[in-house]
Amino acid sequence: MPALLPITIGIIVILILAFYLWPAIKSMQTRKPEIKKEIPLFTEEYAEELSIPVPRQTLEYVPELPRAYGMDRMALMVRDPYWLYAYWEITATKMEDITSRYGPGLWEISKPVLRVYDVTGINFNGTNANNYFDCSLGVNADDWYIKVAEANRSFCVDLGRLFPDGSFITLLRSNIVTTPRDTLSDRLDEEWMWIEGLYSKIHMGISSPLIIEEIQERMGKVPLGISSPGFHDSPVN
Amino acid sequence: MSKGYLCMILHAHLPYVRHPEHENFLEEKWLFEAITETYMPLINAFERLVDEGVPFKITMSLSPTLISMLTDGLLQDRYHKHLNKLIELADKEAGRTYNTSFHQSALMYQNQFNHSRDTFYRYGGNLVNAFKKFQELDRLEIMTCATTHGFLPLMMNNKNAVRAQIRTAVNLHSKHLGRHPEGIWLPECAYTPGIDPILKEQGLKYFILDTHGLLFASHRPRYGVYAPIFCPSGVAAFGRDTESSKQVWSSNEGYPGDFDYREFYRDIGFDLDFEYVKPYIHPDGIRIHTGIKHYRITGKADYKEAYIPSNAREKAAIHAGNFMFNRKLQIDYISSIMDRPPIIVAPYDAELFGHWWYEGPLWLEMLMKKIHFDQNTFSMITPAEYLKRHGYNQVATPCASSWGHKGYNEVWLCAKNDWIYKHLHVASGRMVELAENLYHAAGIQVRALNQAARELMLAQSSDWAFIMNTGTMTDYAIRRTKTHLDNFIRLYYEIKENRIDEGWLNYLESKNNIFPEIDFKSYADRPVA
Predict the structure, then answer these.
(1) Which residue of A has its CA nearest to B354?
(2) Deepest of A60, A191, B181, B194, by most Cβ within 10 A of its Cβ?
(3) Domain A73-178 sits in which CATH superfamily?
């Protein structure tokens, strides 16, 4: 009989412990994350250079990149013979500087504009461009695609404000880029070179105009669309 | 005496994907598939050609990221396991398809994978050794490629960044292949004037352009694409021949679409019962390509019939003969109007052969044999050899171009991926700043600087922009870009403010351990010893 008492107390203690610990144990189990079974997105597959298996749900962290770097900068890039791309960043400091110089009203009166200068063949100093045109920008744009009329030209772009009276102030100036050709060159005068010891260049006239014509004819329209890793319109698509 | 030359170039590249933190990472499968379906079959084809005494000549480019992955112990290990499982599956397939029309196909895979495993052992798990062997035998010329396959024209705002990509690549290539590369495969054949002087500085003698890159040069090339030109800097540029490309690439007229060839999209990973394929697909239960496919293209519609290996082999032979015949005609004609032997440059992505076009490596092997035994109008050549024989060439500046869709930069600069450049440009500017200011750094600073260079280069991989544009796996590409840039930014500040977190640096070094000999000083303006 007396042996029963410690046993009973023991059981009661265990029950009390269990009562308090049970919720904790339960919540530990439910805290394990579930591995989701993704239904494969397999509606489209392009036979591009990588064999691309179906993506799985990634639980990995994707960091966010800075929205701005605190530098006044403008970059101009070439996309193809007729398109440029520009992106820019203006710091708050610079904005204040402009405001103090032209008054706060300038932001309302003037429009944000990209002035695209054709600077082919010249040493651009801000005023001696061959010609230029303006592109109206969206209000909060910080990048823009610019269409140009002619291939194989050099350009420089200003980000600025255009006033109703036609005056223009420059906020940022880009680097200079040159767009590529989109046709055969007209320059048929040839220059030749030996690589070993860089032999003197010999100028040759058009000794075989026939070749050029033949090749042109055979080439016809040069298909630019031959893409790399292929099968753009493949039957296996 | 041959009237002309054929120069076939295979560009082999994969972006760097290595995730030691996951046992079974989906994107690592890209490498395993490429090895099993492209590199092994090519190596085996080359071996047979050598055994049979066929003096073939092929040019290949091996990108540094690919070389790094092929020589990485962890990935070699994982590949080995992958191959074992594949053989297991192939064995099961051989059993399952017994007495059905799919049996021949199953036996073929069984044979192929076992042969691959033998090959793998023979080269000690390092396939770069295989390519090196053929290089030593003078059968293969191996070009390098920009370190992480960066899209160089859109990096040219910072020449030091371009130079670092080239220099690191050349060093890595020399180390693994035992010799300085003569030529470089510009990623995506993307060129813009200004790149070639950098190539020259690093001792490179030639690169490859898409057709219009050469044709639209500053001075009209006298020989069209049938001879290279020298850039004013002295580096030679070869241009792709359209005709030979079309025969292989073209969806309508090209060989790979032939109805007897293997259908890519009927993989047993998708077709068969889930429980059966479960151990061979992704552990999360996602169905993926296993590499075993039992159907042939059959027709343009969805209806597919069983793949018959012997029919496919016959077709490959016919197509090889056809290709050779067409090149003969082409060279016959062009050599008659040119006063020197024309060179037909035919570059392809290596992954076309075997992975997309299963019979590709076989076709290539047969082509090499036919060229040697069945004709003597033309011979195979590599670009470096051509330059040795014809060292006197026209000078012109090539046209900025790429072999991407539409021929210029659009694929890598469009709404889906243009946002990366404002970050990449700042990062490369900062890398140069660090390299200049800390040129004489020592100890942990050097480690951090080198790791920063790694992170920058990995972020610059053009593959990410490409994937973001083409649509599948965009999340992965975005994540890689942002992660590497984020790592770089953090390292930049830690280095600049002299508070490098060694624990985190160790972690990064082990995770993104590519290019052990990278030298941050490549980014500085001063010449590096």
Answers:
(1) A51
(2) B181
(3) Immunoglobulins (2.60.40.10)
